[in-house]
Amino acid sequence: MSSKKALPISGTLTVMVIVVVLVPSALLDPTAEFEAAFLKKCVEFPEDKNTCKATLAIFEEAYVGKKKTAVTEDSYNKLFDKTPFKHPCGETMLYSGIDRVKTTDVVHRFTKKTGSYFTLEDTLLGHVLDGLIWCGKEGSKETFTEHCTDTMPNPYISFWIMASVKVAQYACGHVTVMLDGEREQPYYDKSVFATHEVPNLQSPEVKNLVVILVVGQKDDTKCNKESLKNLSNILKGKKIGYACKEVTLAHIEECIKEGKGVCW
Ligand code: APR
Fold first, then answer.
1. Which residue, of 31, 51, 58, 128, is most buried by count of CB atoms within 10 Å of its CB?
2. Is there an atom of ligand 1 within 6 Å of 75 CB?
């Protein structure tokens, strides 16, 4: 289409192409994009706002320039040492098998809306890294965000395992865990809760573990499931008390709606 308006249009197009191609190319640089996402979520924690850049630098030390399989749980030791948890240790909320589709993330909606209890994702590092993927490469200073989880171990899984270990070690007093009472095994021995959190609960700091068993209909039988007996025995061996309470999903939803933190 060669009309007299062609020139100004192509001029406009050139500007648009420059804007569209050049500006987002900065945004599409995975390192810049990752760092921006990290910092954006970090400053949502007002008391940590001024140390976000330093925290990002310590975080990157764990994996930048390393091959994926070289990043182990211990690679994050310095990060967790320099970024201690700040929530009340007696308000720790663990969870497992709370199917994100069926209950649309009920545990996180509950802690966020009511402000009572803290899951890992309510702590600074858990919040910042939830939903992000990252890895490095030998001889590179960049952060990559694709093909990061196709090896074992990898920087992503190593972080979440260490975070689970640390949050369990930090817990004290009456620790709560939300489990799905509709599953055959609400306490599932291959879950991160079973493999990395229960073994790291510290006695005598942790007095007991309170299972909030989320059910469709309350019938006061689901706490008797075999897998929960296993959990209770494991805790007994660790000299940690155990309690289990059936709570309907509808009741928790009501508490979320009303912002009621004392829900069971
Ligand atoms: N039965 C079958 N599958 C289960 C069960 C179960 N009872 N529990 C968990 N799973 C499966 C889930 O379907 C999912 O695919 O294990 C996978 C991970 O489940 P999560 O709900 O993330 O539970 P878990 O592995 O225990 O990790 C959660 O670790 O992130 C930390 O502090 C956090 O306490 C939390 C725990």
1. 128
2. no
Q: Is the per-residue pLDDT at 2 higher than 60?
A: no
**Ligand 1 atom having least distance to the Cα of 193:** 26
The DSSP element (H or E) to which 232 belongs, if any, is helix 226-237
Evaluate: CB of 123 within 6 angstroms of ligand 1: no
Instruction: Please tell me the least confidently modeled range out of 88-102, 111-125, 167-181.
Output: 88-102
Cis ω before 24 (30° cut-off from 0):
no
Task: Report helix, strand or coil for 145.
Answer: coil
Measuring CA to CA, which residue among 141, 121, 144, 156 is closest to residue 34? 144
Confidence of residue 23 (pLDDT cuts 50, 70, 90): low
Q: How confident is the model over 187-212, as a mean pLDDT?
A: 98
Read off the amino acid at residue 233. Answer: N
pLDDT digits 0-9 by tens, 215-230: 999 999 999 999 999 9
Buried b (16+ CB within 10 A) or exposed e, 61-73: ebbbebebebbbb
- Distance (Å, rounded) from C-alpha 244 to C-alpha 224? 9
185 CB near ligand 1 (under 6 Å): yes
Spatial CB neighbours of 191, under 8 Å, sequence gap ≥ 6: 96, 97
Rounded mean pLDDT of the chain?
Answer: 91
The CATH number fitting domain 2-258, selected from 3.30.360.10, 3.40.190.10, 3.40.50.300, 3.40.50.720 = 3.40.50.720
Q: In 6-120, which residue ranges form alpha helices assigned H by DSSP? A: 6-28, 30-42, 52-61, 77-82, 106-114
104 or 160: whose pLDDT is higher? Answer: 160
